[in-house]
Amino acid sequence: MQVRSLFLLLALILVAATAEAGKNKKEKAKKDGSKCEDWRWGPCVPNSKDCGLGYREGTCKDESKKLKCKIPCNWKKKFGADCKYKFESWGGCSAQTGLKTRSGILKKALYNAQCEETVYVTKPCSSKIKSKSKAKKGKGKD
Protein backbone atom coordinates (compact mmCIF):
# COMPACT_ATOMS: atom_id res chain seq x y z
CA MET A 1 0.00 0.00 0.00
CA GLN A 2 2.86 2.39 0.83
CA VAL A 3 4.52 1.69 -2.52
CA ARG A 4 1.29 2.55 -4.32
CA SER A 5 0.93 5.80 -2.34
CA LEU A 6 4.55 6.72 -3.05
CA PHE A 7 4.06 6.02 -6.75
CA LEU A 8 0.91 8.18 -6.81
CA LEU A 9 2.74 11.02 -5.03
CA LEU A 10 5.61 10.88 -7.54
CA ALA A 11 3.14 10.93 -10.44
CA LEU A 12 1.42 14.03 -9.02
CA ILE A 13 4.76 15.81 -8.56
CA LEU A 14 5.73 14.98 -12.14
CA VAL A 15 2.42 16.31 -13.50
CA ALA A 16 2.78 19.51 -11.46
CA ALA A 17 6.36 20.05 -12.64
CA THR A 18 5.34 19.54 -16.28
CA ALA A 19 2.47 22.01 -15.95
CA GLU A 20 4.79 24.59 -14.37
CA ALA A 21 7.34 24.18 -17.19
CA GLY A 22 4.62 24.78 -19.79
CA LYS A 23 3.47 27.85 -17.90
CA ASN A 24 7.01 29.26 -17.87
CA LYS A 25 7.27 28.87 -21.65
CA LYS A 26 4.04 30.79 -22.15
CA GLU A 27 5.23 33.56 -19.80
CA LYS A 28 8.54 33.76 -21.68
CA ALA A 29 6.68 34.32 -24.94
CA LYS A 30 4.64 37.09 -23.33
CA LYS A 31 7.80 38.72 -21.90
CA ASP A 32 9.01 39.20 -25.47
CA GLY A 33 7.53 42.68 -25.15
CA SER A 34 6.09 42.87 -28.64
CA LYS A 35 2.44 43.74 -28.98
CA CYS A 36 2.66 43.82 -32.75
CA GLU A 37 0.56 41.15 -34.49
CA ASP A 38 1.36 41.76 -38.17
CA TRP A 39 4.86 40.30 -38.48
CA ARG A 40 6.42 39.95 -41.94
CA TRP A 41 9.02 37.19 -42.08
CA GLY A 42 11.76 36.79 -44.64
CA PRO A 43 13.15 33.50 -45.90
CA CYS A 44 15.44 31.32 -43.83
CA VAL A 45 19.02 32.36 -44.62
CA PRO A 46 21.63 29.67 -43.83
CA ASN A 47 24.75 30.76 -41.94
CA SER A 48 26.97 29.10 -44.55
CA LYS A 49 26.51 27.47 -47.96
CA ASP A 50 22.91 26.75 -49.01
CA CYS A 51 21.58 24.65 -46.12
CA GLY A 52 21.84 24.02 -42.39
CA LEU A 53 21.31 26.33 -39.42
CA GLY A 54 20.51 29.95 -40.10
CA TYR A 55 18.10 32.73 -39.25
CA ARG A 56 15.07 34.56 -40.60
CA GLU A 57 14.40 38.24 -40.05
CA GLY A 58 11.00 39.60 -39.22
CA THR A 59 9.65 43.14 -39.15
CA CYS A 60 6.52 44.67 -37.74
CA LYS A 61 6.11 48.44 -37.86
CA ASP A 62 9.33 49.76 -36.26
CA GLU A 63 10.32 46.47 -34.63
CA SER A 64 12.57 43.75 -36.00
CA LYS A 65 13.48 40.27 -34.78
CA LYS A 66 15.67 37.35 -35.81
CA LEU A 67 14.55 33.75 -35.34
CA LYS A 68 16.70 30.65 -35.61
CA CYS A 69 15.74 28.33 -38.43
CA LYS A 70 17.10 25.37 -40.36
CA ILE A 71 17.06 24.39 -44.02
CA PRO A 72 17.50 20.63 -44.43
CA CYS A 73 20.51 19.87 -46.62
CA ASN A 74 18.51 17.49 -48.77
CA TRP A 75 16.05 20.30 -49.58
CA LYS A 76 17.19 21.54 -52.99
CA LYS A 77 13.78 22.45 -54.38
CA LYS A 78 13.42 25.76 -56.18
CA PHE A 79 10.25 26.59 -54.25
CA GLY A 80 11.92 26.73 -50.83
CA ALA A 81 11.48 25.06 -47.47
CA ASP A 82 8.75 27.50 -46.30
CA CYS A 83 6.27 26.35 -48.94
CA LYS A 84 4.60 23.01 -48.16
CA TYR A 85 2.93 21.12 -51.01
CA LYS A 86 0.71 18.07 -51.40
CA PHE A 87 2.15 16.05 -54.30
CA GLU A 88 0.36 13.59 -56.55
CA SER A 89 1.95 10.37 -57.80
CA TRP A 90 4.76 10.41 -60.34
CA GLY A 91 3.59 10.37 -63.96
CA GLY A 92 4.87 8.04 -66.62
CA CYS A 93 8.31 8.29 -68.12
CA SER A 94 8.67 10.58 -71.14
CA ALA A 95 10.63 8.82 -73.88
CA GLN A 96 11.67 12.20 -75.32
CA THR A 97 13.17 13.69 -72.14
CA GLY A 98 13.84 10.59 -70.02
CA LEU A 99 12.11 12.31 -67.07
CA LYS A 100 9.08 11.70 -64.85
CA THR A 101 6.97 14.65 -63.68
CA ARG A 102 4.53 15.31 -60.86
CA SER A 103 2.74 18.37 -59.59
CA GLY A 104 2.13 19.70 -56.10
CA ILE A 105 -0.63 21.97 -54.83
CA LEU A 106 0.17 24.49 -52.08
CA LYS A 107 -0.88 23.15 -48.68
CA LYS A 108 0.70 25.73 -46.36
CA ALA A 109 2.91 28.83 -46.63
CA LEU A 110 5.01 29.31 -43.49
CA TYR A 111 6.07 32.76 -42.28
CA ASN A 112 4.03 34.55 -44.97
CA ALA A 113 6.27 33.08 -47.70
CA GLN A 114 5.45 33.96 -51.29
CA CYS A 115 4.62 30.55 -52.74
CA GLU A 116 3.36 29.37 -56.10
CA GLU A 117 -0.06 27.71 -55.98
CA THR A 118 1.10 24.78 -58.15
CA VAL A 119 4.64 23.52 -58.73
CA TYR A 120 6.05 20.85 -61.02
CA VAL A 121 9.07 18.69 -60.26
CA THR A 122 10.92 16.19 -62.42
CA LYS A 123 13.34 13.35 -61.87
CA PRO A 124 15.14 10.94 -64.16
CA CYS A 125 13.26 7.78 -65.07
CA SER A 126 14.39 4.68 -63.23
CA SER A 127 16.60 2.31 -65.15
CA LYS A 128 14.98 -0.97 -64.07
CA ILE A 129 15.46 -2.47 -67.53
CA LYS A 130 19.21 -1.87 -67.33
CA SER A 131 19.50 -3.44 -63.87
CA LYS A 132 17.64 -6.57 -65.07
CA SER A 133 19.99 -6.94 -68.03
CA LYS A 134 22.99 -6.59 -65.70
CA ALA A 135 21.57 -9.31 -63.49
CA LYS A 136 21.24 -11.65 -66.49
CA LYS A 137 24.81 -10.95 -67.55
CA GLY A 138 26.03 -11.72 -64.02
CA LYS A 139 24.21 -15.07 -63.96
CA GLY A 140 25.67 -16.08 -67.31
CA LYS A 141 29.25 -15.60 -66.07
CA ASP A 142 28.88 -18.15 -63.24
TrEMBL record:
Indicate where this protein is primarily found: secreted
Signal peptide (UniProt feature, chain positions): 1-21
Pleiotrophin/Midkine N-terminal domain boundaries: 23-79
Recorded family membership: Belongs to the pleiotrophin family.
Question: Which species expresses this protein natively?
Answer: Irena cyanogastra (Philippine fairy-bluebird)
Which PROSITE patterns does UniProt cross-reference here? Answer: PTN_MK_2
Could you tell me what this protein is called? Midkine
One cellular component term from this protein's GO annotations in UniProt: extracellular region
Extract the InterPro entries matched here: Midkine_heparin-bd_GF, PTN/MK_C_dom, PTN/MK_C_dom_sf, PTN/MK_diS_sf, PTN/MK_N_dom, PTN/MK_N_dom_sf, PTN_MK_heparin-bd_GF_CS
Q: What keywords is this UniProt entry annotated with?
A: Developmental protein, Disulfide bond, Growth factor, Heparin-binding, Mitogen, Secreted, Signal
List the PANTHER family hit by this protein, alphabetically. MIDKINE (PTHR13850:SF2), PLEIOTROPHIN FAMILY MEMBER (PTHR13850)
Functional description taken from the UniProt entry: Secreted protein that functions as cytokine and growth factor and mediates its signal through cell-surface proteoglycan and non-proteoglycan receptors. Regulates many processes like inflammatory response, cell proliferation, cell adhesion, cell growth, cell survival, tissue regeneration, cell differentiation and cell migration.
